[in-house]
Amino acid sequence: MHHVVVSGLGPAGATLLYELASRGYSVLGIDRERFPRYKSCGGCISTKIDTLKGLDLNPLIETPVYGATFSYRQDRYVDIFSDEPVAYNVKRDLFDAYLVERAKKAGATVIEGCKVEDFLEEKDHIRVVCEGGKSFSARFFVCADGAGSLVARKHFSLNPKEFGISYTMEIPVDEAETEKMLGTLYIDFGEVPFGYGWIFPKKGLLSVGVAGESKKCKGRLRQDFEKFLQNHKILAGRALKEKVHGWMLPIYHSDGHPVIKGRALAVGDAAHLVDPFLGEGIYYAMASAQAAAESIMEAIEENTTGFESYREYLKREFYPEFRALSKLAGLVYTHPRLWYRMVEKEPQIMLRYYDVIRGRRRADEFYRWVLSKVIKKPWKVLRRWLEDKFLRTG
Ligand SMILES: Cc1cc2nc3c(=O)[nH]c(=O)nc-3n(C[C@H](O)[C@H](O)[C@H](O)COP(=O)(O)OP(=O)(O)OC[C@H]3O[C@@H](n4cnc5c(N)ncnc54)[C@H](O)[C@@H]3O)c2cc1C
């Protein structure tokens, strides 16, 4: 009997294993894949990750990111850079394998290539059932098996209707070519309805993708991806034969989303903890795992099952930010042309947003500030929008 069984060893599950194993608890982590494995992702982690305790990312970071080259429908390129890093780019296969290895070294037991199918509450423990009928018992169970989690759909209302959807491609290029791009993100607004397109350069590799809200862009996102690949200045003219991956982003949609059920709890993507504006999820996966680990340790030591401190953590630290980012997404993605025009004219809007990404400025404060610009000077904003829509040539 383990203290905890964890299903899924992405950033959330592997962090949770590490936190508990390094404090001497008996933990078992199960993943259906074998590491290193591919994960559809931009691999861009905000510098708020530095606030997580006990994590040394130095071996994995190629170059800090200082800003981005933005575009509107692959045109009107604008560079907005800061003096300090905003994010780090990592290769997800290496990053995730590193976290799993770190958990193993701390004493966690790991089973790879085994699919978790369900869990059953018994009187004083939980039974985790895997493919082929194999089962494992523990005092607690953590569901960390991501956006595709069947367990989270059944027990924690993970809801595909509320997802973002995406297409991505990893394009190998000469290291010399990416050398000058490292430290920059390429972000395009306007091509994808209710979403955006990106190119995140890594050493010898371009991570390229588009993502948008499923309700708004279902059925047309694949075509938008083709357009993005053909038209972006960095990609135009290349013969691209790499595999296209489609995947889902379980963006935040409600504070009331269930994350606790008896002796089980959900973390990371399985708990809908993805930022609804840019789709950032790695930080939230790892931070939620650390908070869940604290709550589980309390439950073990005090012989309780409430996990109230985990629920409170999400309410305090995540949901207010997600609510504000959701409103910001509504504003930006409903009016991408207007947003782009504002950012083009006033790059300090983006510089201020970089502080939100860094975790130094609150998202609700930023949203109110942007909104006040629109409300205080509606004529100026309307004029910009009209100029942009009707007078702009080229
Ligand atoms: C296209 C795209 C781009 C993204 N870009 C970024 C980005 O640049 N920056 C960022 O911060 N976030 C990004 N995200 C979000 C980020 O990838 C996720 O939020 C993050 O991976 C969540 O971590 P997790 O551990 O919760 O889940 P995952 O990383 O999905 O890990 C889940 C694990 O569970 C395993 N698993 C699944 N089912 C089972 C099962 N039945 N049994 C056992 N194991 C199972 C999987 O093999 C996997 O290893 C992106 C997402 C997408 C789709």
Commentary on this structure:
There is one protein chain. The chain has helices spanning 11-21, 92-105, 150-155, 175-179, 214-217, 221-231, 282-302, 308-334, 336-345, 348-358, 363-376, 378-391; strands at 2-7, 27-31, 44-46, 64-65, 67-72, 75-81, 87-89, 109-112, 116-121, 126-130, 135-143, 164-172, 184-189, 195-202, 205-213, 245-249, 260-261, 264-266. With 394 residues, it is an alpha/beta fold. The strands form 3 sheets. Strands 1, 2, 8, 9, 10, 11, 17 and 18 form an 8-stranded mixed beta sheet that branches. It has a 7-stranded mixed beta sheet with strand order 6-5-13-14-15-12-16, sandwiched between helices. Helix 8 packs parallel to helix 11 (363-376). The longest helix has 27 residues, at 308-334. It starts with a strand and ends with a helix. It binds flavin-adenine dinucleotide. The site of flavin-adenine dinucleotide has 42 residues, from helix 1, strand 2, strand 3, strand 12 and strand 15.
What brief labels describe this structure?
394 residues; alpha/beta; FAD/NAD(P)-binding domain; D-Amino Acid Oxidase, Chain A, domain 2; 12 helices; 18 strands; 38% helix; binds flavin-adenine dinucleotide
Please name the CATH architecture of the largest domain. 3-Layer(bba) Sandwich
Tell me the domain tally.
3
Bound molecules: flavin-adenine dinucleotide
The helix/strand class is alpha/beta
Offer a quick outline of the entry.
The chain is an alpha/beta fold. The protein contains 12 helices and 18 strands. Strands 1, 2, 8, 9, 10, 11, 17 and 18 form an 8-stranded mixed sheet that branches. Strands 6-5-13-14-15-12-16 form a 7-stranded mixed sheet, sandwiched between helices. It has a 3-stranded antiparallel sheet with strand order 3-7-4, with no helix packed on it.
